[in-house]
Design brief:
Protein name: Paraquat-inducible protein B
Number of strands: 26
Number of helices: 11
Subcellular location: Cell inner membrane
Shape: elongated
Organism: Glaciecola nitratireducens (strain JCM 12485 / KCTC 12276 / FR1064)
Strand content: 25-35%
Radius of gyration: 57 Å
Structural class: alpha+beta
Keywords: Cell inner membrane, Cell membrane, Membrane, Transmembrane, Transmembrane helix
Helix content: 25-40%
Length: about 575
């Protein structure tokens, strides 16, 4: 009963609701229908317009926003945020936005916003540096920044790899990366360092400059990057030589004194020069970054250049004092090699010969055949075979004086020794037989002469000489008395002759007495004529009676001239 009642009530309730809705949904045709519409308020116009303008500004800022890069410098001297500009060939292409320290506080990081259109400048080999007043040996640079302030200059590279972080240069590059020419690397082992900016010369013309330098502590050599501008870069070949110049060069030769002066820059700061040696062929061209050695001077190239060589050893009995590494080895005055080791290490000698079994001093030399030829070539093994044949035929070596003032020695090679059947060996080195040098031989001869002099009875000889001198003095004194007596006798004879002449005047010329006296007077006169030269000589040189007359010089034969010719 209950369920039926609920069912009936539910059905009856549903009927009532449906009837109500039906009456609302289906109004009568003549009644108006009211519909609510959404309205747009004019208040929203300004906010929407502001939002659109803001979005446009953001888009425009994003569209025109530059490229942000970071450049590392050692110092921020002359740089200011939002004031310092980035330039290329005096055109502004960016501006400094931020300056900060690196994480380790040792470097300065400069953030720069670069014009978006200049993105092609930002490649890995681009260079950045600060342009400011600089004073150097080559002059004053950056003088215009005294009023405008410092700025950062960029030199675009040639790479195609983009990059946003760079390491700035502390000094401006000497040449542009886009300049026509050739970049070379130079190595110097001398004690005449070059400076960045020093000129590169060729026959007095400045054709390039030194771009950078650094020193290798391990190899103990200086390395330089240089640039040779076009068209002079075509002169660089594999046979080109580089040497230092100091602006003023004074050389002496058999033709006199030669004074050469380079450019003013080289005179003040030095530089490097290149060229071909006399008689050298040009050779082939070289690529970029080809390496050359720098010599101390043009005259020292032959001594300092690297030659192919073969080593020999000399077993010397003479003293090696004055023989130094690098001393010349000559063959009849022609440079053929260099002394490699003035003496071998003690342990090397023991390893080869044993303890105390070799009293001679081993001297290692290098024979360099390229010194004999400028353009030719000879294989080392062929040259060694030639030298071995010379040794078998009697080639010897000796120590000779290279400079009497300094006492330096050199090695001299000469033929004429005893032929040998085979070349000796001392360790890993073949042996050139040694002989006593001229200086050592001369010293030995002097020692022999002094020894002979010591054996002579000099004391007895000096005593005899002193006695002879004393006897000569006594003889001279006696001779003086004889001369005095002879003078008196002559005077008496002259008086007697005068008396005889006066007597003869009183005699008859035809008488026998007159003729006899006259003949006697003539004989006396002849005798006096013979005595007078002797008396005169003794008067002028009293010791002539002891030592005799000095030997007269030999008469020189002369051709007789015939009359009438």
């Amino acid at each position: 009963m209950t369920s039926n009642t609920n069912t009936e009530n539910g059905q009856s309730g549903k009927t009532e609701e449906d009837s109500t809705l039906s009456s609302q949904a289906a109004p009568e045709a003549n009644e108006p229908v009211v519909v609510d519409k959404a309205r747009f308020s004019k208040v929203w116009i300004l906010p929407i317009l502001a939002a659109l303008i803001g979005l446009g500004m953001v888009y425009n800022d994003w569209q025109n926003r530059g490229i942000h890069i970071q450049v590392e410098f050692e110092t921020a001297e002359g740089l200011e945020v939002k004031k310092t500009v980035l330039k290329n060939r005096n055109v502004d292409i960016g501006r400094v936005k931020k300056i900060s320290f690196s994480e380790d506080k040792t470097k300065i990081l400069v953030d720069i916003e670069v014009d978006k259109s200049m993105g092609s400048f930002l490649v890995e080999d681009s260079e950045f540096w600060v342009v400011k007043p600089r004073f150097g040996a080559t002059g004053i640079t950056g003088f215009g920044t005294l009023l405008s302030g410092a700025y950062i200059e960029v030199s675009p590279g040639q790479s195609e790899i983009e990059q946003l972080e760079f390491k700035g240069l502390e000094t401006p590059p000497v040449t542009s990366l886009n300049a026509d020419g050739i970049h070379l690397k130079l190595v110097s082992r001398g004690n005449k360092p070059l400076k960045v900016g020093n000129p590169v010369l060729h026959k007095g013309f400045e054709v390039g400059a030194v771009e950078s330098k650094y020193y290798d502590d391990l190899e103990q050599e200086a390395h330089y990057d240089v640039f040779i501008q076009a068209p002079f870069h075509n002169l660089i070949t594999e046979n080109t030589s580089f040497w230092n110049v100091n602006g003023l060069s004074i050389t002496t030769s058999t033709q006199g004194v030669n004074v050469t002066m380079a450019s003013l820059d080289a005179l003040v700061a030095g530089g490097v020069e290149f060229g071909l040696l006399d008689g050298a062929l040009p050779g082939l061209g070289v690529p970029q970054n080809y390496q050359f050695q720098v010599y101390d001077s043009k005259e020292s190239i032959d001594e300092q250049r690297d030659y192919k060589f073969v080593e020999y050893v000399l077993l010397v009995e003479d003293s090696v004092g004055g023989l130094h590494k690098g001393a010349p080895v000559e063959y009849r005055g022609i440079r053929l090699g260099t002394v490699s080791e003035p003496y071998m290490e003690f342990w090397e000698i023991i390893d080869v010969a044993g303890v105390g079994k070799e009293e001679r001093i081993p001297v290692v030399i290098k024979l360099e055949p390229e010194r004999l030829m400028k353009n030719g070539y000879i294989a080392i093994d062929i040259f060694k075979a030639m030298v071995d044949d010379w040794i078998k035929e009697g080639l010897t070596a000796s120590l000779e004086s290279a400079n009497l003032l300094t006492g330096s020695l050199m090695v001299s090679l000469q033929p004429g020794g005893e032929p040998i059947a085979a070349v000796g060996q001392f360790g890993k080195f073949p042996v050139i037989p040694s002989s006593q040098g001229g200086f050592a031989s001369l010293s030995k001869k002097l020692e022999n002469i002094l020894s002979e002099l010591e054996r002579l009875p000099l004391n007895a000889t000096l005593a005899n000489i002193n006695g002879l001198i004393d006897s000569a003095d006594e003889t001279v004194k006696t001779t003086g008395g004889v001369i005095e007596k002879a003078s008196k006798t002559l005077h008496t004879l002259e008086q007697s002759l005068e008396e005889l002449q006066s007597t003869l005047r009183g005699l008859q010329p035809d008488s026998q007495v007159y003729r006899s006296v006259e003949e006697m007077i003539k004989k006396i006169e002849v005798t006096l004529d013979e005595i007078k030269p002797i008396v005169k000589e003794v008067s002028n040189q009293p010791n002539s009676l002891v030592f005799g007359e000095p030997a007269s010089s030999d008469r020189q034969p002369k051709s007789s001239k015939k009359e009438g010719n």
